[in-house]
Amino acid sequence: MCGVVGMISSRPVNQEIYDSLTVLQHRGQDSAGIMTDNQGVLCLRKSNGLVNDVFSSEHMNRLKGNMGIGHVRYPTAGTLSSSEAQPFYVNSPFGICLAHNGNLVNNDALRKHLSEVDRRHLNTESDTEALLNLFAHELQENFDGSLTPETIFRAAKYLFEKSSGGYAVVSMILNEGLVAMRDPNGIRPLVIGKREVGQGTEYMIASESVALDIADFELMRDVKPGEVIYITKEGEFFSKQCVEPKSYSPCIFEFVYFARPDSIIDGMSVYKSRLRMGEYLAQKIIKKGLHHDVDVVIPIPDTSRSSALQVAHHLGVKYREGFIKNRYIGRTFIMPGQDIRKKSVKQKLNPIDLEIQDKNVLLIDDSIVRGTTSKKIIQMARNAGANKVFFASAAPPVKYPNVYGIDMPSTSELLASNRTEDELARYIGADWLIYQELEDLIAAVQFEESDVQAFDTSCFSGEYVTGDVSSNYLEIIENKRNDAAKAKKEIERKQMDLQDQPSLTLN
Predict the structure, then answer these.
(1) 209 lies in which domain range?
(2) Looking at the structure, do residues 384 and 437 belong to the same domain, yes or no?
(3) Nearest alpha carbon to residue 360 among 312, 294, 415
(4) Rg of the chain in Å (alpha carbons)
(5) What is the pLDDT along the chain (507 residues), one digit of tens a residue?
C-alpha cells in the first residue's frame, strides 16, 4: 500500500506536495519521494524514512517548478532499499517520472517481456519500474512528432492490456504534463481535485481526498476504472475511457483499515462506513447474547474508534478510552518483521488502569491479521486488572493473502487461515472472540449514491477480482513476502551496502 500525489499549479508545488504526503503518511512509512519539473529540468529528492525525515529545507528549496509528483512507500514483495523509493524516472522518451500504488499480478511475465522483446533495462524488482518502462516504450512507439492526448491514451491502453493487478498511477512527462490512470477493476483508489485561481484552474491527483483538503482543492471525482487523465502544464484537462471497466470493485480493506476516516473513496465516506461496521457488529453480539456481561467498550486506537463508539451505543454500555497511543510509533500492521511488530505494540500503547480494572472489557479492533497486536493488548488489559477480556473485530477473519498491494504475505502467517473461532480466541487469550460477517461488512461500506458495483474482498473470501490469481502465484508470493524471506533480503542489502562503502584506514 502506498500513497501518490500529482499536482499542476501556477506557482511552486513543492510545499503543497510535501504537505499532502504528510497526510498520506499512513499509507507508507518506509520511503518518500518528490519529483518536480522546473521548465523541463527534473528536480528529485527521495530516500528511506518518513516524509519529515526525508525532506530538509535545503531539499525543498531545490525542488523547483510548478508541476510535480510525490510518493510514500510501503513495500510488499520488494526490499527496504532506497533504490526502490519512488518516483522512478526514465529519460527516453521525453523524460518520464512515475509513481504508483498497488501490485501487479503478472510482474514477472511483464518484466521478461520488457527485457527480451522491448529491450528495456530494469534496475530493480519493483513493478513500478515495469509500469514506467511499459508506458515509456509505448509512448516512443506511438510518437509521430508531437505529443498529443491521443498518443498518451494509446500508450495507456497498451499498458492496461498488458498489466494485471491493482494499480493507481501518477506520471509526469517533463515539460508536457501529468498523466493519471487506474486499473480496470478500480481496486486501488485515485481522486481528482481542482482549485480555481486568478491564473486559471489548478489540478491535483491523489490516493485519498484528504490530500486535496489540506491544499484547499475541491474534490471533483474519482478516476474511473480503466480511465486515463492527461493534464497539460498549461492546465488543459483531457480524459478518456481507454478500456472498458472489467468491474468496479475497490478494495474493501481501504475502508476497514488503510484509509483515513476523513477520506471519501469512490463516493463513500470511510468514517460513515466504520460507524456502520460498528452497528452491524453490535447486532451480531446482541443476537448471540454475548452483550450481557460487557461493562465497557474500549477501542484499539486509532482505526477502530468509530466502530467501537457505535458498538457501545447499541449495546447500551459505556465507551471509554482504555489505551493511550504513542503518536511517534508507526502503524504496527505495516511494520516489517514479527519481532519489530511485537516490540512496537508495547511502545505504541499503554493502558489506563482506571478504565480497565475490575471490569469486563470488550476490546474492538478493525481487524486481526497476524494476531500479534491482539494477543499483546489482551494481556495488557489483564495485567491492568480486567476481570474478563472480550474481543471483537470490525472485519471478518483474514484468511487469504491480498495480492493487490497490501502486505498480507503468507497464508501460514495469517492467524485465521486454519483455525476455528474458538481456537483463535484461545490463541489471543480472549474470553470470547467475535468477527464481523462479510455480508455485513459489504452492507456497511456500500452506499446507494456510489457507482461501485462490488468490492475486492479477496483477503476474506479468497476470490480475486482479476481472475488470474492461481495457487502457484500465491505460493510464489508467499515465498517472497513472508518475514523470513524479507529478513534474508534485508541482510543481503546491508551486506551490499557495506561492500559499497570505502575502506577506512586507522592511523
Answers:
(1) 3-246
(2) yes
(3) 294
(4) 23
(5) 899 999 999 999 999 999 999 999 999 999 999 999 999 999 999 999 999 999 999 999 999 999 999 999 987 654 556 788 999 999 988 999 999 999 999 999 999 999 999 888 898 889 999 999 999 999 999 888 889 999 999 999 999 999 999 999 999 999 999 999 999 999 999 999 999 999 999 999 999 999 999 999 999 999 999 999 999 999 999 999 999 999 999 999 999 999 999 999 999 999 999 999 999 999 999 999 999 999 999 999 989 999 999 999 999 999 999 999 887 666 555 555 555 555 566 678 999 999 999 999 999 999 999 898 899 999 999 999 999 999 999 999 999 999 998 876 578 788 898 888 899 999 999 999 999 999 999 999 999 889 998 999 999 999 999 999 988 888 888 887 665 655 555 555 555 455 444 433 333
Instruction: Give the closest residue to 132 by CA, choosing from 205, 55, 212, 35.
Output: 35
Instruction: Please tell me whether residue 25 adopts helix, strand or coil conformation.
Output: helix
Residue 499 is placed in which grid cell? 561492500
Tell whether 293 and 388 lie within a shared domain. Answer: yes
Q: Are 456 and 465 in contact (CB under 8 A)?
A: yes
How far apart (Å, rounded) are the C-alpha atoms in residues 455 and 384?
40
The total domain count for the chain is: 2
Q: What is the pTM of this model?
A: 0.90
Residue written as grid cell 473461532: 421
Q: For residues 309 and 230, state if they share a domain.
A: no
Interacting residues of 157 by C-beta distance below 8 A, sequence separation 6+: 228, 242, 243
In a domain, 489, yes or no: no
Is 191 in the same domain as 330? no
461 located within any domain: no
Which helix (DSSP H) or strand (DSSP E) does residue 271 occupy?
helix 270-287
CA separation for the pair 356, 295 (Å, rounded) = 10
What separation in angstroms does the CA of 293 have from each of 420, 422, 436? 23, 18, 19
User: Do residues 237 and 285 share a domain?
Assistant: no
The residues assigned a catalytic role are: 2
The residues pairing with 34 across neighbouring beta strands, listed in sequence order, are 45, 70
Q: Is 195 found in the same domain as 128?
A: yes
CA 83, 88, 92, 94 torsion-angle sign = negative
Instruction: Cell numbers for 76, please give them.
Output: 510488499
In this structure, what are the phi and psi dihedrals at residue 229, rounded to the nearest 5 degrees? -110, 135
For residue 264, give the 3-state DSSP assignment: strand
Angle of helix 305-315 relative to helix 270-287, nearest 10 degrees, comes to 40
Q: Which helix (H) or strand (E) holds 272?
A: helix 270-287
- Give the residue from 437, 455, 473 where a domain finishes: 455
Tell whether 217 and 281 lie within a shared domain: no
- Cβ proximity of 138 and 117 under 8 Å: no
